[in-house]
Amino acid sequence: MFDHMGFAVVDFPKSKAFYERALAALGVGVVMQGEDFVGFGRDGRPQFWVGIGDRPTTRMHLAFAAKNRAEVRAFHEAALAAGGKDNGAPGLRPNYHPNYYGAFVIDPNGHNIEAVCHSPEA
Q1: Most CB atoms within 10 A, among 34, 60, 96, 115?
Q2: Can you give the residue range of the structural domain that contains 85?
Q3: For residue 12, which of 27, 33, 29 has the smallest C-alpha distance?
Q4: Per-residue confidence at 58, pLDDT binned at 50, 70, 90?
Q5: pTM value?
């Protein structure tokens, strides 16, 4: 449904470093960057943008698709190592559907960031 999205961050270097480490576990990396913005994606296509701006007044929830459950676990571990705060360890969330496997962290701006896989364990 979405082609791309982005949001503003107060501490750009800290946020860029966080997302570089956390998203690498999902095969997502820096595709384009400037002095005050960075675009992350796969296959040379930026789909997630972060740039300098005002502190957010509300929290946002953003879920990244993982290819498998191992990627969800790797994302959670990398995001915590990059300074994220645990907001839900990797695991099944059967209240969403039987194979919903997700992990949640709070990013440096207070946003709830998730990696999710909808497939059964391989």
Answers
A1: 115
A2: 5-117
A3: 33
A4: confident
A5: 0.92
